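Thread: "does anyone have the structure for this chain?"

Original post by V.I.:
We have the sequence but no experimental structure in hand. Need at least a predicted one for the grant figures.
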Amino acid sequence: MCIRDRAMAMVKKIKGRKGWFIDYTDANGKRIIRKGGDTRAEAKHALGQIITRVEERRHKKRHGGEIKGLARDVALADVAEQYLRHVKATHAEKPRTYKCYRDSLADVLSFLAEHGVVNVGQVSPRALNEYREIRMTESRTVLYKHRGGHHERTIPPVGPRTVNRNVGALKTMLNWAAGDGDLIAANPIVSYKPLPVRRKRKARRALTTKEKRDLLEASPEPFRSMWALMLGTGLRKNELVELTWADVDLDRGKLVVRSELSKNSEMAEIPLRHDLWQLLADMHDRRVTKHIFVNSAGRPWRNNLLPRFYRCLDKAGIERKTPEGDVDIHSLRVTFGTDLVEAGVDPKTWQRLMRHKSARVALEFYAKVNERNLRPAVEKIWLDLPEGGRRESGNKTETSRAVKNAERPARNDVSSKQAVT
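Reply from O.Q.:
Generated one for you, tokens below.
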């Protein structure tokens, strides 16, 4: 038996019959339909086993009668070790990619090992379903090393996106092992589907001029300089913390964002305002490390920057959550984009300064300009109404309610903007 096209294999219900059925076509063009189980999950598992057996036979034929690395004999830890070496070699310019795969695999493999799943052949949808359920409902305590000692930390339950990322890393690893890695015959979870996730973009708002001033005055160094640089250049958090003195061109007054740090994987140059140019020049004379912004241990602020930002927000009296949107460290970049719009910068220049590939993002951002800027725009349109918008009421002339409301100042001067990625 051989499946001609894996895409043609499916599980389905048949009217008038109980259970779920497997429907596939073999290499001779013969269509085969048989019962796979009482539930859809059982039928999918049965179909996956059929595909696995077929791939094992193909693997055996390809290696001259010898089956190298049947799924039941290959340790997950060995596959993970070789796969991470592969990721590290192929993503040398993006160390964060390697770190994400390493951490995701460490989490799911440690759980599977605790439940007796140590070989590839033992991995099943049932084990992954149990992983999903426990990770999304139970807290756990982990050990970590910090400053030469071991400490405990409680990790709360995670959401479906985190679980999908970790299981997706395992599935990608097994696909590589069955393909280019040539370690196993087939991926036992090739048909495992991720959990549905509602993708809702986080609403962030820009800071007002007063809030920017209060934040900078309430922040000690080096955070004052860090927030100022983000507000004046639109740098993202990871681009800021990984900034080195080699990325600063003090002769031309520009910052260089390396391609391995940029979100769109393209190198970019950002012009510096004169005050930020002078700020970095003064800091350059006192430099002691390769990175521009480091903590007391001389390391970049990779993990503890967000709590420090929230601490500065609270000290400045800025609310983190408002009806107009949330304020987090990415709001500094949103503020930079907002200030460019309100300064009258054209969309093409905005796109280049914000380093977006698509002009659509710029146009969408412009379309979400704060409501307080819309009324002056419509007031520029000439419209000659009789009596200047006033109406007669008997012997008394009164101003319409709409005109009165238009003359009132806005209740809240806080600008509301959607997040800029």
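V.I.: this helps a lot. The chain has 15 helices and twelve strands.
O.Q.: and The first helix runs from residue 40 to 62.
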